[in-house]
Amino acid sequence: MKVTIIGAGIGGLTTAALMAAKGHEVTVFEKNECVGGKMNQVTESGFTFDTGPSLLTLPHLLEQVFEVCGADINDYIQLKKLTPICRYWYPDGTRFDSYDDLPITQEEIRKIAPEDEQAYLSFLAYSKNLYDKTADAFIYNPLYDLKDLKELDLISFFGIDAFSTVHKRIDQFFKSDYLRQFFKRFTTYNGSSPYQAPATLNVIPHVELTLGGYYVDGGMYTIARSLFTLAKKLGAQFHFNKKIDRIHVEKGKARSVISGNATYQSDIVVANSDATETIVYMMEPGKVSTAKKRKTAAIEPSCSGFVLLLGLDTSYSELKHHNIFFSNDYRLEFQQIFDEKTMPEDPTIYIANTSFSNAEHAPEGGSNLFILINAPYLSEQVNWDTEKDVYRKKIIRLLEDKGLSGLSSHIKFQKVITPRDFYDLYASNKGSIYGTSSNDKFSAFVRPRNKSRQFDNLYFVGGSTHPGGGIPLVIQSAFNAVKLIDRYE
Ligand SMILES: Cc1cc2nc3c(=O)[nH]c(=O)nc-3n(C[C@H](O)[C@H](O)[C@H](O)COP(=O)(O)OP(=O)(O)OC[C@H]3O[C@@H](n4cnc5c(N)ncnc54)[C@H](O)[C@@H]3O)c2cc1C
């Protein structure tokens, strides 16, 4: 079959490899000049930065892609466990390092929250229980037709804690404000708010703290590059700087994709482009009802991000690979991002310092800081033309106050990526960086499925589709799409 894939993000690349491995004629059209989508890289003045994901969880899914394609992941990617996984700084100067080694983490807990040592263990057991109950039903399941939905019969919404919020459940478990803030942070992994998202998302700590958080030697972009090499080896064709403007449909089927004056016929179309953007703007005019477009546009995007890349001529010995500087008032921070849709006045600041693990990512003696602040998705509340520089200066000042003394005098290279840039670069709905949010207990059911219900041979993969954002789930969306293609085509 002729398979056309729109977009070479992780979802598109994975689908390309999986479909090419099955012997299909695969063509990928990417609007940018390189693969990876939001998993991107900047190399400048001797510094190398990953500009998207910095942490890989559930690596077995990535391993499975190579295995199914008859390849060995070790020939492409060296996964690295980080010790500690992450260093946390609290506003009062307290520090906490998290590990996936339980006895070591327990020692850390005894230092900052001895009253919660037992609660930490109970919470991890609760988080594992959530994973056991939800993974097969919600993640590794296309949730497309009755056959798939049957698996949900076994699930009670009470059993997966969907009626509480992340924040309420965590406050019940822990007395320590340090641990409360630490555990609430995981909800941001898919761009949601701990004050709104169902407590089911408390599954994420199990995924990182027990199953493990990984880095890829050489940088996360190695994943995109490796999937590209794999797909090409299997025969997939790639066209770059080729934006698809339209999906042409006839008699309930996607017949071709159109880029400028060129039309490319296809038996199957897989959209890795953002599902909302695809349904609302790319389908042939008149073929998708206004009601459907309205419903799709109403799905809440995940948050976006404000990214600051700093190339320094020094390195700060107190920084590990992953670092978090927490804000004073977490609730206010999320209220500003998700309700008021403004940049947080006192943000939590995440820093990936990959030169800690890959010295070649900065000139000798220097370091490369990828700084990420959770930001609201695009709305009229923030004008990025004016806000960009104001916020950049604010973050540098805040980091100096929090202990990175003299930071501004060590900057040799800097670049800002705003939510507006995320929209312009990757055409993601309102600049969202994880696809759709999980701020509602029904989010899992609202997210677009991996196969269109209206057009027989149109499939969707990526963070804006089921099962959600983040590298592992995006890979799973490709597995789901291929499973549905096998089932229906
Ligand atoms: C700053 C940041 C930090 C993150 N941190 C993490 C993390 O630590 N761990 C993690 O697991 N995840 C993280 N994520 C999320 C993760 O990067 C995404 O979920 C994942 O990479 C998205 O892949 P995707 O396939 O959905 O789509 P995308 O990466 O959005 O790719 C879609 C591709 O389609 C192309 N495209 C769009 N429209 C068209 C068109 N009309 N024609 C042709 N091409 C088109 C785009 O250019 C793009 O290349 C982060 C993301 C960002 C931005």
Furnish the topology, listing elements before pairings:
Blueprint: E1 2-6, H1 10-21, E2 25-29, E3 41-44, E4 47-50, H2 59-68, E5 79-81, E6 86-89, E7 95-98, H3 102-112, H4 117-139, H5 146-149, H6 166-173, H7 177-184, H8 204-210, E8 214-216, H9 221-233, E9 237-239, E10 246-250, E11 253-259, E12 262-265, E13 268-271, H10 275-282, H11 290-297, E14 304-312, E15 322-325, H12 330-339, E16 349-352, E17 367-375, H13 384-401, E18 411-417, H14 419-426, H15 443-446, E19 458-460, H16 471-488
Parallel strand pairs: 1-2, 1-13, 2-9, 6-15, 13-19
Antiparallel strand pairs: 3-4, 5-8, 6-7, 10-11, 11-12, 14-17, 14-18, 15-16, 16-17
Helix pairs in contact: 1-9, 1-16, 2-16, 4-8, 10-11
The structure holds flavin-adenine dinucleotide.
The site of flavin-adenine dinucleotide (FAD) has 36 residues, from helix 1, strand 14 and helix 16.
